[in-house]
Amino acid sequence: MKRFVEGEDRSQGTLFPERLDDYIADDNPVRVIDAFVEELDLADLGFERVQPQATGRPGYHPASLLKIYVYGYLNRIQSSRRLERETQRNVEMMWLTGRLMPDFKTIADFRKDNGKAIRRVCREFIDLCRSMEMFTQAIVAIDGSKFKAVNSKDRNDTKRV
After folding, report:
1. How far apart are CA 90 and CA 33, in angstroms?
2. Looking only at Cα atoms, what is the longest distance across the chain?
3. CA distance 85 to 105
4. 6, 10, 81, 155: most buried, per Cβ within 10 A?
5. CA 19, CA 35: separation in Å to the nearest integer?
């Protein structure tokens, strides 16, 4: 008899819930992101490629990519490569995108091509969160100063007198 808690055999079949929706609680913030983006008029906000082209390979809908970006904005994930990784392993992202997994280049190009429209959406999302009192009264200050570093051997040692 073993005295440790053991995991299941990886080759064993399991009966997970069949619906991805069962993994996301009713009060999960991704539901707010989904409802918020679905109510936006993306063409009016200035997003490109809202109407699909008649020929060529179908692209991702801007709403799906915007959901990924807003999720990253809320969870402090800025890198396109990290957002791509999250779409492949994060259950919340899988639910949010309907299991779409765009590559990092697609996410980066969406951000580059729709920068002004994304800023407008993020501003509206912050206003919505403030009106719903989702933010606390904490004050955060961010210093974006950058200084050129000069740290040669001659400058970082004090000379003995």
Report:
1. 15
2. 79
3. 12
4. 81
5. 19
pLDDT digits (tens, 9 = 90+) for 114-147: 999 999 998 888 888 788 777 767 777 777 777 7
Domain positions in the chain = 20-137
pLDDT score recorded for residue 110: 93
> Which residue from 110, 125, 119 is spatially nearest to 49, judged by alpha carbons?
110
Confidence of residue 79 (pLDDT cuts 50, 70, 90): very high
Does the pTM surpass 0.85? The reply is no
Q: Which residues contact 80 (CB under 8 A, 6 or more apart)?
A: 104, 105, 107, 108, 111
d(CA 46, CA 67): 16
Q: What would the mean pLDDT of 29-54 be, rounded to a whole number?
A: 89
